[in-house]
Prior knowledge:
The chain has about 350 residues and is of the alpha/beta class. It contains 14 helices and 13 strands. Strands 2-8-7-6-5-3-4 form a seven-stranded mixed beta sheet, with helices on both faces.
Amino acid sequence: xxxxxxxxxxxxxxxxxxxxxxxxxxxxxxxxxxxxxxxxxxxxxxxxxxxxxxxxxxxxxxxxxxxxxxxxxxxxxxxxxxxxxxxxxxxxxxxxxxxxxxxxxxxxxxxxxxxxxxxxxxxxxxxxxxxxxxxxxxxxxxxxxxxxxxxxxxxxxxxxxxxxxxxxxxxxxxxxxxxxxxxxxxxxxxxxxxxxxxxxxxxxxxxxxxxxxxxxxxxxxxxxxxxxxxxxxxxxxxxxxxxxxxxxxxxxxxxxxxxxxxxxxxxxxxxxxxxxxxxxxxxxxxxxxxxxxxxxxxxxxxxxxxxxxxxxxxxxxxxxxxxxxxxxxxxxxxxxxxxxxxxxxxxxxxxxxxxxx
Length: 357
């Protein structure tokens, strides 16, 4: 089977674009990526400095898996670390999709799911959320589409990127139940650490119909290192493992992950920071007459009209937001939550772009 890579639009600073706009990258504030607003835990640089970079990494990330197993109360053989969630998504596509196979997407959502499965020859089936429903999917419609299309994989981001909606345990269970026996629901919880009062999904992974991805890149501010992990039944892990390169997770990433997991309060502090800054930012955006989608994640989906134009105008002010046209939402921008002072600077720029009165 041929496997062709595809390019997917992501957030994050683009040095060439900033240069063209006359903005010094050091002066720019990046709201286009949704990461831990506190950055990496203090001390992580010391931890990675001790990593053995002269030899190949541990293929099985043994120490990291042990730490995850202890923190999550999940057996070791149910855990697979990866080079960020993006690598894990591509592993699913390679392990489950053959040319002509259907895969389901709960849209609008992260483009990497479709890019990975398209590269494997899959055919996308979309279950679309409606703006009128607050971008929440309709359960009966979703299960009907799944039963009809018989997909090999279904991808559900929870909280969803870019809408910020958090679906219930009952919704996830109904979707998983509707899938064919040898198919899998991939529950992407890249932003779950920032959701208030989120329900515990991990018990679902042990049943074999649901696999759960999480992102230490986002949770612990390790975007430059790349680190994620999968929790799934052992037979799912073993189906993916042959498709993963031998040294996928570097020694530096493993060391950073082990240290980050030892810093128990870091994510909790970030969650409180997100809550305060998000409430402030949402209030100010509404004062400007902008439509703000309620969000359980560490970002806001904001209806601004011509998103491309708004993004370009903010870029000239050194403020980078995500234009959501690639999600099929050309009227929206996505704003990642940063520290409160950064959010105040963004609000000041937005007031110039959307003057009141």
